[in-house]
Amino acid sequence: MRLAALYTAFAVLAILANLAAQRLVLALLGDAGFALAVLVGTGVGLVLKYLLDKRWIFEDRETGARAHSRKFGLYTAMGLVTTAIFWGFETLAWMTWQTDFAREAGAVLGLAIGYVVKYRLDRRFTFRTAPA
């Protein structure tokens, strides 16, 4: 139960960081910056979530550039499918209703679904020695 609560809290933090980064880009570039906003937000959320998951969810104490680059590469690869889920929901909501609320609601829904899938992939492939 503790693990699920932590994972959920970290997912919420990553979502908030993602959306804050998107809002910043959109504030600077307007609607023309939508694709860049989604990309920047995704990057910010990804790095934050990796650091939190590695230490607190999967209790991975391995250090060093080699270990981090290998695991971050796997973590990112596992995130490609889940990112497609997230981007799909966010983009569909934006294209359908073209409001910030709809875009963010689509993003939150897509990220929530994506994080469930991502946990399972990371547990199996990225952090193999992780607790169940």
TrEMBL record:
<dbReference type="GO" id="GO:0000271">
    <property type="term" value="P:polysaccharide biosynthetic process"/>
</dbReference>
<feature type="transmembrane region" description="Helical">
    <location>
        <begin position="72"/>
        <end position="89"/>
    </location>
</feature>
<protein>
    <submittedName>
        <fullName>Polysaccharide biosynthesis protein GtrA</fullName>
    </submittedName>
</protein>
<keyword id="KW-0472">Membrane</keyword>
<dbReference type="Pfam" id="PF04138">
    <property type="entry name" value="GtrA_DPMS_TM"/>
</dbReference>
<feature type="transmembrane region" description="Helical">
    <location>
        <begin position="31"/>
        <end position="52"/>
    </location>
</feature>
<dbReference type="GO" id="GO:0016020">
    <property type="term" value="C:membrane"/>
</dbReference>
<feature type="transmembrane region" description="Helical">
    <location>
        <begin position="101"/>
        <end position="119"/>
    </location>
</feature>
<dbReference type="InterPro" id="IPR007267">
    <property type="entry name" value="GtrA_DPMS_TM"/>
</dbReference>
<keyword id="KW-0812">Transmembrane</keyword>
<feature type="domain" description="GtrA/DPMS transmembrane">
    <location>
        <begin position="7"/>
        <end position="127"/>
    </location>
</feature>
<keyword id="KW-1133">Transmembrane helix</keyword>
